[in-house]
Design brief:
- The chain has 128 residues and is mostly beta strands.
- It has a single domain, classed as BH3618-like (Roll).
- It is built from 1 helix and 9 strands; from the N terminus they run ββββαβββββ.
- The protein has a 7-stranded mixed β-barrel.
- β5 and β6 form a beta hairpin.
Length: 128
């Protein structure tokens, strides 16, 4: 996976930031941080959803894929989901409703809002 990520559109809730650094946090390449700016803020956590949500298969619109130079069966396409760390009162959750679609060759990315999809905004993160 590449380390420099450029979002074609700002992430929801983070206007202005488009260039980030994606850093793996484990040897398996499942958990990542996404950081913007010289000071590394904001910092988001992301995971590859497959090991945690076996049934997760978001339908990414063709227009979104085309803007990233990808097709639906392209092996350069990676889907990541943003994770909100938990606490004693709340579990760690993943945003399955707005995945990040990444072209692993160019580093271009989009956050795609899956309108009308059955995926939750805050799915508890557990190993599948």
């Amino acid at each position: 996976m590449i380390s420099s990520v450029h979002f074609l559109e700002s992430l929801a809730g983070l206007p202005g930031s488009k260039d980030y650094v994606l850093t793996p946090l484990d040897d398996a390449g499942l958990l990542f941080t996404l950081r913007a700016g010289a000071d590394g803020a904001p910092r988001l956590f992301m995971v590859q959803p497959g090991p945690y949500f076996a049934e997760y298969a978001p339908a990414i619109a063709g227009e979104a894929l085309a803007s990233l130079g990808l097709t639906s069966d392209d092996d350069r396409c990676a889907v990541l989901v943003i994770v909100t760390p938990g606490s004693e009162q709340a579990p760690t959750t993943a945003n399955l409703l707005a995945p990040i679609v990444l072209n692993t060759e160019t580093g271009d990315a989009l956050q795609v809002i899956l309108d009308g999809a059955p995926w939750p905004l805050r799915a508890p993160l557990v190993a599948a």
